[in-house]
Amino acid sequence: MDSLSSQIPPPLVAGTARPPRIWKFWGTTLWGLFIFGAMFAGQLAVIAWFVLRQEGEADIVSTIRAVGGGLTISLSVIMGLPAVAAACWIAIRPSRTPFADYLALRWTTWKNAALGVVSLVVLVGCWDLLSRALGREITPGFMGDVLKSAQADGALWLLVIAFCIAAPISEELFARGFLYRGWSESFLKPAGAVLLSSIAWTSLHMQYDWFFFGEVFSIGLLFGYIRYRTGSTLLTIVLHGLNNLAATLQTIFLTS
Predict the structure, then answer these.
(1) Whole-angstrom Cα distance, residue 211 to residue 136?
(2) In sequence order, which residues have a C-beta less than 8 Å from that of residue 62 and are 6 or more positions away?
(3) Which terminus has fewer CB within 10 Å in the chain: N or C?
């Protein structure tokens, strides 16, 4: 009886802190919409500022130029990062779980990191070969247009920071950090969480056509599996940043 009773946790008493918890499916989904809204609001605030500061009478052409400029896009992506981080903190705080633990902001082994890099190179390489075989452009036209605009504005360095640092951190905190954590501990289990979080992440890239949409989704599945296998969102952030850096350098080389 003593050994059996020792396994029963003591009841909570007044003044005792409640144990931490994780949001399950609906909690993660609703808070995920809140985080997505915060990201959108942070980015939209920058776009609105550029539109409102236009001199003279605004027209459609000048508005489109202001919204689609490299400087505007770079700053909007960067401003999405603090918005996502703050929204994640608000969502995680009621769970009483430490912020870094909830989002799995921990490192893994260098062996896992090397396997992640190799897997990403192979996957992206296969998509590049398929793109060439189909006679398609290797990089999205959207990337080339934004790059040229950023160069004209003298903001190429800012674009690199936005695409290779700010975007990977904010998107991974959202998808592989918050969404995966809650959904994987719900009825979806890890496999369903990898699939659904990849769909959610892919939906953030609506500027691409169907081909690059498929590539982004496959990369999301890989990142989701790595998140499951290693338990590290930091690794997916690094891999995401390396992928974006390679894509940015490739676009610079092809458009130069």
Answers:
(1) 9
(2) 54
(3) N
Q: In b/e form, how buried is each residue of 120-133, taking b as 16+ CB within 10 angstroms?
A: beebbeebeeebee
Q: How far apart are the first and last CA of the chain?
A: 77
Q: What is the pLDDT of residue 153?
A: 82
Dihedral angle computed from the Cα positions of residues 176, 36, 75 and 207, in that order, rounded to the nearest 10 degrees: 80
Report the distance separating Cα 201 and Cα 196, nearest Å: 9
CB 51 within 8 A of CB 67: yes
Distance of CA 217 to the CA centre of its chain: 12
pTM attached to this predicted model = 0.88
- Residue 222 and residue 69: Cα distance in Å, rounded? 31
Task: Please check the confidence at residue 52 and state whether its pLDDT lies above 60.
Answer: yes
